[in-house]
């Protein structure tokens, strides 16, 4: 955080990956008694085009759902403790949950990291993408999931995640009761959400 703040102070122009990231930086500087009035741009992240190649937008969600998430970082803010609880709930309810990537622990629901080609094939095999990640400045994992055709269940404290995928899913409060309610909302509004997902076309090559 200090490196980011010092970089903003010394820069003439600042590019942020989200409005949330910009506000976070400005608030932190304000806490230090520093006011900055820099020229800035918001350039959002986007997935690689490869994540569209096997896109699978379902007509309706099945009764028993296949949830998936993927992370490369083992930072505790990625939500791994919640994923353990969620995996147990899924097992009891007849759903499935797969965690792809690096993790703090090895469990029966964890899968080793995959490259982009493998992920582009694997993600569309699932029904719903769940993320419990918090305070992300420019979250790419959820955008890769949207490109693959999946609706998103995301944390209310997700930072840029809420900004990126508010039209492509439903928020939750990182507890099981909230997740159950979010799934019900997702089912009820899936027709509109899936239509919005179908309109998502962004890719990082075009943005670059």
Count of beta strands: 8
Helix content: 40-55%
Radius of gyration, whole Å: 18 Å
CA distance, first residue to last residue: 25 Å
User: Per the principal axes of the C-alpha atoms, what is the gross shape?
Assistant: globular
Across the major sheet, the strand order is 5-4-3-6-7-8
The residue-averaged pLDDT reads 94
Give the class from helix and strand content and strand pairing. Answer: alpha/beta
Relative strand content? 15-25%
H/E element sequence: HEHEEHEEHEHEHEHHH
Q: Which sheet architecture does the biggest sheet show?
A: 6 strands, parallel
What's the tally of helices?
9
Poorly predicted runs of 5 or more residues: none
Compact description:
By secondary structure, this protein is an alpha/beta fold. It has helices spanning 2-10, 19-31, 80-93, 116-122, 141-148, 160-165, 176-188, 190-199, 204-207; strands at residues 13-16, 39-42, 66-71, 96-101, 110-111, 128-131, 152-155, 169-172.
Which tags fit this structure?
single chain, 208 residues, alpha/beta, six-stranded parallel sheet, two-stranded parallel ribbon, 9 helices
Structure commentary:
By secondary structure, this protein is of the alpha/beta class. 40% of the residues lie in helices and 16% in strands. The chain contains 9 helices and 8 strands. The strands form 2 sheets. It has a 6-stranded parallel sheet, with helices on both faces. The protein has a two-stranded parallel ribbon with strand order 1-2. The chain is globular, with a radius of gyration of 18 Å.
